[in-house]
Amino acid sequence: MTNKLAVFDFDSTLMDGETLEFFAEELGIKDKVKEITDKAMRGELDFFESLTERVYLLKGLSVQTVNKICYNLPLMNGAKAAIKGLKEKGYKVVCFSGGFHNATSYFANVLNLDGEFANTLHVKDNCLTGQVGGEMMFNNSKGEMLKRLQKLLGVKKENTLAVGDGANDLSMFKYAGKRIAFCAKPILKKEADIIIEEKDLSLILNYI
Length: 208
Prior knowledge:
Number of strands: 7
CATH class: Alpha Beta
Strand content: 15-25%
Number of domains: 1
Number of helices: 9
CATH superfamily: HAD superfamily/HAD-like
Distance between the termini: 17 Å
Strand order of the largest sheet: 4-3-2-1-5-6-7
Shape: globular
Structural class: alpha/beta
Helix content: 25-40%
């Protein structure tokens, strides 16, 4: 049997919105955080710089609030159907997120994902310190992790599918045979071979 791998971005792909903006809303700084997010997703700002800058603004937010927000994030329309359909076709399905394990590990169970890679918010005295670390900190993190997974699972490029919406998904497109830009920024659409403009993830099954 051929090994097949599907990799999804989380924010604005599996989930309808940006996790950091939901946090920022709690602190009344959503517009400030959104501006930085938008620049990063358009490729105008280095992802590492944008991530550390946004997380720093969340200093003091309680872990309880963070988790409550994470467990109630809105799933993208068609997310469950897309993953179920891919699994039926023999794909391992994994999430790569420049966001946080607080959300991705929870939704990995909800969506029956085979794995999730994300970042970790640093916590002290039950509050965010404004610092962050993890597996998905840089512009090239998703591509590097995809390479490792392909090697580990014995999956070839032509049997790899990647779905994303922003500039930090570019690096994984390099190693994917099917590159799907989902309601994406122009910078990602340019490198995609499949473009979906409707907010319904189950539409990807038409291309499998």
